[in-house]
Design goal:
Length: about 250
């Protein structure tokens, strides 16, 4: 080789090939992880077909309030069952919450059987964590409850175990739902828009916030907190244990 001719660097063909292979592996890993997350999300939003995790979680910082210290109001329109029932279940819900809708379809009927037998009192509280449409629905539900049609109206808003879209919780849509179950419409509209109803809805939401019920549904069953749409068996077992302990 002539002395003046510079030594040409040897072309390392494997370097770009390695870079391409690494990039391809990274893309495949991202796609795999993303698909797994989507599958989990789909299972969690398929109307409750998957059995929820059986985990009883304590409400955050339960020392803020004595959870057994609830004053039952015999005139509470959102309550059902004897005021002196052996067991009381307080439910914190939201009309845009899919898990609340699933629980209402899967478990509420069994709870109402206990109400009918006089063993359980249910006190329903809307916390409206999903915003203004939920608050409007809560006012409408309260107005329906004033005509003793809370559960019928509740079922209309959670038909099929699913919540309505926000646009289907407009005052017009809620009024239409009220008409479907035969409410006195003049009275319903007056109650839905009254300051007294707004005050009651605000008080119920504030109660949930005070207890730390920032996720829905949250339950207080005779002082014991439960979070999430637990299976029906969790509530049945808890009620039966409470009833047995009082005999």
């Amino acid at each position: 080789m002539p002395r003046h001719e510079a030594v040409r660097p040897q072309y390392r063909w494997w370097i770009p090939l390695t870079v391409v292979a690494a990039a391809l592996a990274l893309v495949l890993m991202i796609l795999f992880v993303d698909r797994g997350q989507n599958d989990d999300s789909a299972r969690n939003t398929d109307g409750g077909q998957q059995e929820p995790d059986v985990v009883v979680t304590e409400v955050e910082d339960p020392e803020q309030k004595d959870l057994s210290d609830f004053d039952s109001d015999d005139e509470d329109p959102l309550a059902d069952g004897p005021v002196d029932a052996p067991v009381t279940l307080v439910v914190f819900s939201d009309y845009q919450c899919p898990y609340c809708a699933a629980w209402s379809q899967d478990t509420l009927p069994t709870m109402l059987d206990y109400v009918d037998s006089g063993d359980l009192r249910i006190e329903w509280r809307e916390v409206n964590v999903f915003g203004r449409a939920s608050e409007q629905a809560a006012k409408a539900a309260y107005a329906a409850a004033l005509q003793d049609k809370h559960w019928e109206f509740h079922e209309k808003l959670f038909a099929g175990g699913k919540p309505r879209a926000p646009e289907d919780l407009s005052p017009e849509a809620l009024t239409s739902a009220a008409a479907d179950i035969g409410l006195d419409m003049d009275q319903f509209e007056a109650d839905m828009n009254s300051p007294k109803t707004a005050e009651a809805v605000d008080e119920n939401a504030a109660m949930g916030t005070e207890l730390g019920a920032f996720s829905t549904p949250t339950f207080i069953l005779d002082g014991q907190p439960y979070v999430g749409a637990q299976p029906t068996s969790v509530f049945v077992d808890a009620i039966e244990q409470n009833l047995e302990g009082q005999n």
